[in-house]
Design goal:
The protein is of the alpha+beta class and 526 residues long. It has 4 domains: 5-83, GIY-YIG endonuclease; 98-131 and 133-245, no CATH class; 249-356, 2-Layer Sandwich (Nucleotidyltransferase, domain 5); 363-525, UvrC, RNAse H endonuclease domain (Nucleotidyltransferase, domain 5, 2-Layer Sandwich). It has helices at 35-41, 49-56, 69-83, 134-147, 162-165, 176-194, 199-215, 219-245, 289-296, 315-326, 338-356, 361-370, 422-439, 454-466, 499-525, and strands at residues 15-20, 26-32, 60-65, 98-102, 110-112, 126-131, 249-257, 260-269, 272-282, 305-308, 331-333, 378-386, 392-400, 403-404, 410-413, 447-451, 473-477, 482-484. Strands 12, 13, 14, 15, 16, 17 and 18 form a 7-stranded mixed beta sheet that branches. Strands 9-8-7-10-11 form a 5-stranded mixed beta sheet, with helices on both faces. β13 and β14 (403-404) form a beta hairpin. The radius of gyration is 33 Å and the shape is elongated.
Length: 526
């Protein structure tokens, strides 16, 4: 049951809010510059469907105050990772970075650090990282163990094992000299992982020791150092490849459909697309493109330039926080032309392709022909059946996926128009239909089609504007099957064989048939 908002004491400070259900489980976390204004806004009318579902499940709200909006931004991201609320954005790749752990045993081991769902590290010891490109680090962890003679056995054996005979471990389990050197091996490993001692300096030191061992005729020792240098060389090669493959630019395209945001990324290096990823999240509460970007870069390497298809809200704040986390200046740009714009256009085409997967080809063509932002999966078509002053009715057919959805057909008695004024009648039924859907917060169609010409279209557009509903709207004139679009003087004419036109004609004919039948029924009754 929804909590009475008037009974909640809400502070007017910056901070975060944790919305809970009846079981006291956190279901949504948001941030605000003014908590009171933001939280109260959830309980106002005209929220989208998914935000309504969130509000219906709120039983309590908890607040955490911060000194400013910047702190709220950071705290929100950390709390989302901790609680993983079902209504917040959740990226599936939460643990992309790799962390390593040196255990606190008598003779420490080097392991990959495992984490719980909340991000807490399992096991005791010292944690090092994060390291980018986790899979590559997993390949090098073996080299690190061999290079620094770190044992791999879970339980310390009583006698030297195969690793000792392979030269990968000095067997501190058996030999006292190995026990003395083990502490130094671990110290050298730590200095490399911390970055306090540069790899070059360490290699130079090893080279000097190898020369001294050779001069002293300690050829076995010299051979061991040579093997260590070879392993370090392999490690450096992998690290170099990671650096080369990192990009100074990352591209994001975003598209909204059915209250869901679809985001696609491209990473480009040396003029070549090296990586791509896709994400989706519900537009609930404060979930936004800006929030997505911030959360994305808590688990991905931050580039110098982030190129986007739309400017995220709080752009300057986001740039500031990312710059601080990255250690260099980060810029978010939306290109208008040039190579960057071409890349964004390519991403948007890919999003179109994903959206069109499994869709009726005629609907995909209709989207392209009409310049729509999304495929018109739901189409509502209106017609006026006018037989004398006493028998004028409106009708609506509804097509879903390019096929009739007869349970969604609607009929209208004309109530406010006298005489044969088709323009005004279209205006009336459009206003009634979408005022009701808006008031009841029901989902709107992707496209409205009017049977008629430019005049009927103009009347429909005025009604849509009057009820403050934004839906793409066109008209289809019967004589030459011309399509009239808003703000376009000349009609659009497409091939008679086009599957897109056939869908429009079918919807128009169904609306006409349904209206004529309703009109005849009224005449019979009278």
């Amino acid at each position: 049951m929804t909590r009475d908002i008037s009974k909640i004491n809400i502070p007017s400070h910056p901070g975060i809010y944790l919305m809970k259900d009846k079981t006291d489980k956190v279901i949504y976390i948001g941030k605000a510059k003014n908590l009171k204004n933001r939280v109260r806004s959830y309980f106002l009318k005209n929220q989208n469907y998914k935000t309504q579902k969130l509000v219906e499940n709120i039983s309590d709200v908890e607040f955490v105050l911060t000194d400013n909006e910047r702190e709220a931004f950071l705290l929100e991201a950390n709390m989302i990772k901790r609680y993983r609320p079902i209504f917040n954005i959740e990226l599936k790749d939460q643990q992309r970075y790799t962390y390593l752990r040196i255990t606190n045993e008598q003779y420490p081991r080097l392991l990959v650090a495992r984490r719980t769902r909340t991000g807490k590290f399992l096991g005791s010891g010292r944690i090092f990282g994060p390291f980018t490109q986790g899979s590559s680090k997993l390949l090098t962890i073996g080299s690190l163990r061999k290079t620094f003679k770190i044992r791999i056995c879970k339980t310390l054996p009583k006698k030297a094992c195969l690793e000792y005979h392979l030269g990968n471990c000095e067997a501190p389990c058996e030999f006292k000299e190995a026990q003395k050197r083990y502490t130094q091996h671990v110290s050298n490993l730590e200095s490399i992982l911390k970055g306090k001692q540069k790899m070059r300096d360490f290699i130079e030191k090893q080279k000097q020791e190898m020369k001294q061992a050779s001069d002293s005729l300690e050829f076995e020792r010299a051979r061991e150092i040579r093997d260590t240098l070879q392993r370090l060389g392999n490690l450096q090669t992998r690290q170099k490849m990671e650096f080369i493959q990192s990009s100074d630019e990352e591209f994001f395209g975003a598209r909204i459909q059915d209250q869901v945001a679809h985001v696609m990324t491209f990473r480009k290096t040396n003029g070549v697309i090296r990586d791509s990823d896709k994400f989706s999240f519900d537009l609930v509460g404060d979930n936004s493109f800006s929030n997505f970007l911030f959360q994305y870069y808590t688990t991905h390497k931050i580039p110098k330039t982030i190129v986007v298809s739309q400017i995220p809200e709080r752009k300057e704040l986001l740039e500031s926080i990312l710059s601080e986390n990255a250690g260099f200046s980060v810029e978010i740009v939306m290109p208008k032309k040039g190579k960057r714009k071409e890349m964004i256009d390519l991403i948007m085409k890919n999003l179109d392709l994903i959206e069109a997967k499994g869709a009726e080809p005629g609907l995909v063509e209709l989207k392209e022909q009409l310049g729509l932002s999304e495929i018109p999966k739901v189409i509502e078509c209106f017609d006026i059946s006018n037989h004398g002053d006493a028998f004028a009715v409106g009708s609506m057919s509804r097509f879903v996926g390019g096929r009739p959805d007869k349970s969604g057909y609607r009929k209208f008695k004309i109530k406010t128009v006298k005489g044969k004024d088709d323009f005004a009648m279209i205006g009336e039924i459009i206003k009634r239909r979408y005022h009701r859907l808006s008031e009841e917060k029901q989902s709107l169609p992707d496209l409205v089609v009017i049977d008629g010409g430019k005049g009927q279209l103009g009347s429909a557009l005025k009604s849509l504007q009057a009820v403050r509903v934004a839906i793409p709207c066109i008209s289809l004139a019967k004589e030459n099957e011309e399509i009239y679009l808003p703000r376009q003087k000349e009609p659009l004419v497409i091939s008679k064989a086009s599957p897109a036109l056939k869908i429009l004609q079918h919807a128009r004919d169904e609306a006409h048939r349904f209206g004529v039948r309703y009109n005849r029924n009224l005449q019979l009754i009278s």
